[in-house]
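request received
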Amino acid sequence: MTTTTYRQLIDAFRESKLVESIGSIASWDQHTYMPPKGAGHRAEQMGFLAKLGHEKLTSPRLGEWLTALETSPIDDETEAVNVREIRRVYDRAVKMPSKLVEEIAKTVSQAQNYWAEARKKNDFPAFAPWLDKIVALKREEASAVGFKESPYDALLDEYEPGATAAEITRVFADLRADLVKLVAEIAASGKKPSVDILNREYPVERQHIFGQSAAAAIGFDFQAGRLDTTVHPFCSGIGPGDCRLTTRYHPREFNQGLFGILHEAGHGIYEQGLDHAHYGTPAGSFASLGIHESQSRLWENQVGRSMPFWEHFFPRLQQTYAGTLDDVTLESFVFAVNNVEKSLIRVEADEATYNMHIILRFELEQALMTGDLKPADVPGAWNDKFKQMLDLTPPSDAQGCLQDIHWSMGGIGYFPTYTLGNLYAAQFMEQARRDLGNLDEDFRRGQFGRLKGWLNEKIHSPGQRHRAGELCKRVTGAPLTHQALIGYLRKKYTPLYGLA
Amino acid sequence: MTTTTYRQLIDAFRESKLVESIGSIASWDQHTYMPPKGAGHRAEQMGFLAKLGHEKLTSPRLGEWLTALETSPIDDETEAVNVREIRRVYDRAVKMPSKLVEEIAKTVSQAQNYWAEARKKNDFPAFAPWLDKIVALKREEASAVGFKESPYDALLDEYEPGATAAEITRVFADLRADLVKLVAEIAASGKKPSVDILNREYPVERQHIFGQSAAAAIGFDFQAGRLDTTVHPFCSGIGPGDCRLTTRYHPREFNQGLFGILHEAGHGIYEQGLDHAHYGTPAGSFASLGIHESQSRLWENQVGRSMPFWEHFFPRLQQTYAGTLDDVTLESFVFAVNNVEKSLIRVEADEATYNMHIILRFELEQALMTGDLKPADVPGAWNDKFKQMLDLTPPSDAQGCLQDIHWSMGGIGYFPTYTLGNLYAAQFMEQARRDLGNLDEDFRRGQFGRLKGWLNEKIHSPGQRHRAGELCKRVTGAPLTHQALIGYLRKKYTPLYGLA
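response:
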């Protein structure tokens, strides 16, 4: 039953999303083609759109319509989902005092510049007062929004609706225990791939062409999207039929370009697979950042770093870079792109140790939110934990606690969604293999359509009809655990490193 | 005296311009980088922005503030101008029903894609229903806005405030009479340049580099703008510090690329020369499309096709295309880029016959608006008039009535501003030469700063402080006539064609 009230609610909410999508074009343009002197005017345009979107979202009429709809029965499942999820977003938005919203916006916009300077000069003390202010503001945000157990939950909820720090802590603890063992076994194996083959000459133009064709092969629709170059890679779903990927290339680093593209294309395939008939409503929107990340990790790692994928693509890669890889075997290439090694920088970490980087940040963030850790003490805490978890000591804060932009953007609570993505990806892929049979044979033939179709049906088209945890149970028959990821990693690394 | 009421008026009007400038990014993106399947969503975004801009512009509070300001004396000249011109725009806007505004925006956003397809496939019938809808909507617009003599005046007023079809008809009639004579004398001279030298191999990448450096040389600031490739070239001033030029290249047509760039750069130099302190208000906006076009024509033709310009640039062109122009003299090159010949395509027409293309469109548009011409009959009417005025029959609609994007954008009333631009350009340039002395010597040295400075001061920075006709009188001491243009053309062509 579609009532007038429901229609009004949807139209109004959809309009706030339309404003957001206009901001996405402006933001994409800012990162790709905007001339440098346009920055000031663009800031004014973005500020105007942010304010307008917030006004549309917090209109008291939305609250009235929601209350009216909640007090009468709704038969239609999609309508019920939309009311439930618009309520969540609306409540969060109206609970935030607009002065706090404005102060956070102003603070993080300045803090990002101070962070960039501090990182460049390896000067944590210059950033410390900003981190202090951001943590204080995010604690204020948590009290404004409200929480049951931990203030961290209030922040997490923005990115991963319904998830709690306690739950994540449990899964991450299991994961950590098994990862420590696995990484130790790999180190003890004494085997190492020749990673130098990935640092040969890979001219950027060919990386672009090869990457684009790989993204198209796995199912990213270039009639409904594009791929450009930016300093920091991202995927931006502008709306139905329009999804923008970006990447960066280095002429002597193969991994960065191609795996960056497969990663962003995974996000893009999710965006392109959403239910466009419900565009601008929760039913047509992605479920959570963790689920979004599961799609990028699935294509980047589960597929893109697999032997069958390279059985198809390696001869093509050899052709693309004629003369460069003639002395390299398929086996040694696949080993090289799956090298496991403790390292300092999160975005360069391998599939196994990556999660240690996340667990470290997750623990520090919680301590910052409870007040157990003072922002000024972050470098010491970071380095202690790094030593303990990864057996390395960052030679500088620039390569340590200053490496990521997230905190300067106010993104506390965002990091765990990366490892959630790895966990969901493994559990989904395990199920896809059960449902679809011999997927490796598809990959060997360069065919990815059955897997993409399965993901479209099971993960993409439901949108926010189910929260992440529930979606996982529905699709895989089990709640999220660390076992699929550990099982997948063990299975991959056992032959490569000759593990027992 | 700046009152609170004045500040409120300016802030509100400026916000409507900010919305417009956000639409400019979306529109630029649509023409440059948007993936094809994004068209539907983009139409919705553009429709929303048009509606929002219209709402902001037609807020009753604006009317109240205007009335309050008009009933008390204003000392400040800029403030007086802003009140006068906001009144004009406000009155026009409140007369337009917002449903009509939204429908026009949605229709033209889609129609542009259909036009591009129809032109590609030489399929006028595929575009006819869209033209029909657009003409109907524009007639609705004319009745809503109101007019004294002709519905065409109501449309014209949007582009050329204060101008009327009757006035333009008079100046165009004088121009046409003298042009017919001049073009006949040129044809009778029997002399012809070797235009084939412009159809040698001009690789596109070098055209881009050479064009970009020429645009920078005449004063376009690439830190505050860019140059991209589109089907139909345009210039879009997004806002302070951000102006986008586009052009198109053909590897065997020299004129199209370079003169297209000089043309759009002329528009861009105007946008960059506006008074940014008054951005978003009439005092910081361009005077009219005719004045805008005068700036593009001035740089493209008066400067860019002159002998002194090529005395500087021709040796550089020879270097850029090493081996291609070794056998060509400066004189024969300048003659070739000034070839006068009746031809099919407006944007490829020479400076003299170009105006015939405009007069033809001006007449057809008036007939469409009165209903004397049905959109479905446009191809026949076009071809008849073309035969009569230019003694040629277009071999296809793609090279006839489908060649221009304007009607698909709803731009009826726009074309005459092109010839107004030619007329103003000639009259301004005559004055610049009187004021600045030997400009040709500057050009020979590749120096364009004195001319650009004069234009910045006389034409650009005043914004809408004077309407076009008044600006012409203030700058040149005389109202607009056809004489400067005819004088300039005669002076140029007399030596080239050995006229009496």
